UniProtKB/TrEMBL annotation:
It comes from the Bacteria. Belongs to the histone deacetylase family. GO terms for molecular function: histone deacetylase activity; hydrolase activity. The keyword Translocase does not apply. Keywords: Hydrolase. This is Acetoin utilization deacetylase AcuC. One of its GO terms (biological process) is epigenetic regulation of gene expression. It comes from Pedobacter nyackensis. InterPro entries: HDAC_classIV, HDACs, His_deacetylse_dom, His_deacetylse_dom_sf, Ureohydrolase_dom_sf. Coiled coil: none annotated. Residues 20-289 form the Histone deacetylase domain.
Length: 301
């Protein structure tokens, strides 16, 4: 059975005065339940991540400042909100959900995290609402335990996965691929193994054409596991994204990536990433499409 990480803390509100579309983390599983796509048996609630696993990807001094809530104010501003204990716990439960999801994916072919995609967190910094890098942590977990030997990270969030690129800059076993808005946050980009910068207002056809050309190239890395960051801030309706994909285009993007994984016998863990459309329904619909496509591709006979 395909598993989906979800925890009530995922939808925990940020400190007063800091708005963020956290409600989607409750609405996504709710919508999937309503449509009969999933049952309670599909969901699992992750426990907090163990410290030794955090430290496979993040420097101890940075982690100590997070867990003791002593991160300097300047660094908290870089993250985008002031720290509190529940936010740190939320982040380590998200990361544990991605680690456990990777293990489930090795069994079932695919697994999801309703949250995650915290790709702006580097080895010793947090940024852009990201404290810890969930997919980097899970990738290092698999490598450390000999459960994967060559990993591919496909990041199609509208923002470059700068933290992921930095963490794996000198790690030949992990290939980082990011398609992202060229003139969007983060304005100081890191170097992925393959970066495809996109012009503002790119259409479905142009975006999907670039993705179609790139996917076969990724096989040269000879991966045996894939992490996919499926942010829906690529939508034309997104207030931060600057791209112009339709819901149909975003859905086709997911189909292409997940079919690529299925066709090449690559287990894949999927984290949801960003989505900031003013109408929450647009965000939820696009994220739910990702789940539906994955379930269809990996569960069909």
């Amino acid at each position: 059975m395909i598993k989906i990480a979800w925890h009530p803390l995922y939808a925990h509100p940020l400190p007063e005065g800091h708005r963020f579309p956290m409600v989607k983390y409750e609405l996504i599983p709710g919508q999937l339940f309503h449509e009969g796509i999933i049952t309670e048996k599909n969901l699992f609630a992750p426990e907090p991540l163990e410290e030794n696993v955090v430290l496979l990807s993040h420097e101890k001094a940075y982690w100590d400042q997070l867990k003791t809530l002593t991160l300097p104010a300047k660094e908290q501003r870089r993250i985008g909100f002031p720290l509190n204990a529940q936010l740190v716990e939320r982040e380590i439960r998200i990361a544990k959900g991605t680690v456990e999801g990777a293990l489930y994916a090795r069994q079932c072919g695919i697994a999801f995290n309703v949250a995650g995609g915290t790709h702006h967190a580097g080895s010793n910094w947090g940024e852009g609402f990201c404290l810890l890098n969930d997919q980097a942590i899970a990738a290092n977990y698999l490598l450390n335990r000999g459960l994967a030997s060559r990993i591919l990270i496909i990041d199609l969030d509208v923002h470059q996965g700068n933290g992921t690129a930095e963490i794996f800059y000198d790690e030949p076993r992990v290939f980082t691929f990011s398609m992202h808005g060229d003139k969007n946050f983060p304005f100081r980009k890191e170097r992925s193994d393959l970066d495809i910068p996109l012009e503002d207002g790119i259409s479905d056809a142009a975006f999907l054409g670039k993705l179609s050309n790139a996917l076969p190239l990724l096989l040269a890395h000879k991966p045996d596991f894939v992490f996919y960051l499926s942010g829906v801030d690529v939508l034309e309706s997104d207030k931060l994204g600057k791209l112009a994909l339709s819901k149909a285009g975003c859905k086709e993007r997911d189909r292409m990536v997940l079919q690529f994984c299925k066709d090449n016998n690559l287990p894949v863990q999927v984290s949801m990433g960003g989505g900031y459309s003013p109408n929450i329904k647009d965000i939820v619909d696009a994220h739910c499409n990702t789940f539906k496509i994955g379930l269809d591709i990996f569960e069909k006979l």
